[in-house]
Amino acid sequence: MAHEVERRALAEYLEKHSLKHTKQRDAILDVFLEAGQHVTSDDVYQRVREQHPGIGYTTVYRTMKLLCEAGLAQEQTFDDGITRYEIEHEHHDHLVCTKCGKIIEFECSMIEAAQNDIARAYGFRVLRHRHELYGHCEDCREG
Amino acid sequence: MAHEVERRALAEYLEKHSLKHTKQRDAILDVFLEAGQHVTSDDVYQRVREQHPGIGYTTVYRTMKLLCEAGLAQEQTFDDGITRYEIEHEHHDHLVCTKCGKIIEFECSMIEAAQNDIARAYGFRVLRHRHELYGHCEDCREG
DNA sequence: ATAGATGCAAATGTTTTGCAGGAAA
DNA sequence: TTTCCTGCAAAACATTTGCATCTAT
Question: H or E segment at A49?
């Protein structure tokens, strides 16, 4: 069975919090892990219903939140106002193409360092951040 | 009369685009300029109704969009999903306190430079960006 | 006179909530 | 057999749109 590690992580989280281990939660986790990065709740809903037509919107929303709390997923909100989820992984930022919708991840230790300096200068304790560059990607910029 | 420069800029924009110069548009511009940074459409609506009780939500929304197109306002969307507007000014980023809601602006030329490097590396033409650090401000961080 | 603006109500699209029935512990 | 989940329908929320009316030009 696929995604053994993540399934076990979910099971542990559920047990630790006296929550219940259901088919729906496993199904949604599987679909999410399979679907790749930056999926919306609706993406997950559509895909999970291919295998499990009974599942409801509500359950998807609730489960995606749960996966975030369990540290398996991470929420991202871009400028279109739709919440997206990605598999929890190393700290990074995004380039978003406003023509084709492509999302590219990047990392930059120089920016990280500068952020820390700024936070310190303002007495701020930074818990999370977002950093997105919007524009046209290589394929979409003409001329 | 206050905000002469901006009123004139709006008038010019309207004329150039064959749009009409109405009391509502002036009133909303005034309120927006008076209200300070990072106001929501609802903020503007509440304030403008103190002087002009007849004005509708719709007009505020439409006019804030218009002010953006005219280059007098600038849209900002933070993680709460509510669109905010600020007076168009030099490029900058934001520190957002998730306890008290305070928003602090900062500028960092090092980050700007790094962004340009990254865009170049990916063949991206950056049109705009957002960069927000969420956490607790000096007054809200305890211990 | 006429293109464009207004304001109400209704629609939109995403996400959340109430609740009765259902499944896991 | 109790606690937690599910799924539906309805609500919530910010924002947009249809449309009849009104106003600036």
Answer: helix A41-51
